[in-house]
Amino acid sequence: MINKIDHIAIAVTNLESALETFTHILGCAPEAIRIEEVASEKVKVAFITIGETKIELLEPLSDESPIAKFLAKNGDGMHHIALQTDDINKETERLASLNINPLSLPKEGAGGKKIMFLHPKETNRVLIEFAQKKH
Ligand code: CO
Fold it and tell me: Distance from the CA of 57 to the center of ligand 1, in angstroms?
């Protein structure tokens, strides 16, 4: 089951300056911000909590990062929408039965959550992430 939009992600070339912009726009307290590095995606990530959901800012840590490739092609901008699910394996099976296949099997993402992505070709050119809720 899908519960809510977990986060909306924006690819940025400079995390520090993007974080300043978004904290100003949102008027949020420093406690609302969590920064981490995700080795599997070679990115530095800032999560800004807004009520029940979050904005994720993504900065590549290497030219090999998928985010570096995205930025080279598109520049800064909206990168993906993440949906929160209770059971990512069940969702993967459900989608497979509809002939919608993920880019990879569920893997570890930011915050130690299990995540997987659908190809934008199958989702009206919007990259969709599924993120399993922590139990
Ligand atoms: Co994400």
Answer: 9
